[in-house]
Amino acid sequence: MKRGPDCPADPLDSTRDVCTLTPGVYYGGWKVGAKVRLLLEPGMYILAGGGIGLTGTESSIEAVTNTAGIEARIMIFSTDGPGCPSIGAQCQDSINFTSEQSFKAKALNEATCGLVSPQACPWKGILLWQDGTASRPDRPVSIGGQSSNILAGTIYAPKALVDVSGGAAGTGCGGTTSASCLAIQIISYRWKVTGGGLIDMPYDPSGLYQLPQRGLVD
Questions:
Q1: What is the pTM (predicted TM-score) of this model?
Q2: DSSP SS3 for 121
Q3: Angle at 137 between CA 64 and CA 135, to 5 degrees
Q4: Residue 186 neighbours by CB under 8 Å, 6+ apart
């Protein structure tokens, strides 16, 4: 992503570019380089191959309220595109938010999904979904580094590693501590929490995906 008609200069910092995306299908994923702000309007985003690479310094991905005033809530579904496997860029890949950037987003809830992406309502509460039935379901989900992350929702990667590392650049959930704010639930094949930074992880089940309850009754 680079400066152009769809990615003008940031009015608050002319050295940075601002790209605004709307819900839909994106073939080949997102590769966000240095000094780019990627703004996501509310709704469901399907990555048809390519995953996410947020690795440049001073870059960010942020969910934002749209012009209709709908709350800044999203869902990202990472899977294969129709060209996989013959087109490598359309095959599922890693979701990577590391280095010196920020990722700020909340998962869709009942009120928001009905307004912007009704097809996502059965999975409300899921923020990131790494498709377990696609070609590369073991591609990891990495969140951390020296980044400022404020996230809420479920990370669902049933066949992959979810790697969360603490950063020192955040302000915590209350805005007073040097920590990332991760009000998240992790459902994955493996997970680990590393790094020397702090992570605030408050638990609010109302903002998370609720697993169907099944059991035997005697």
A1: 0.88
A2: helix
A3: 110
A4: 154, 155, 162, 164
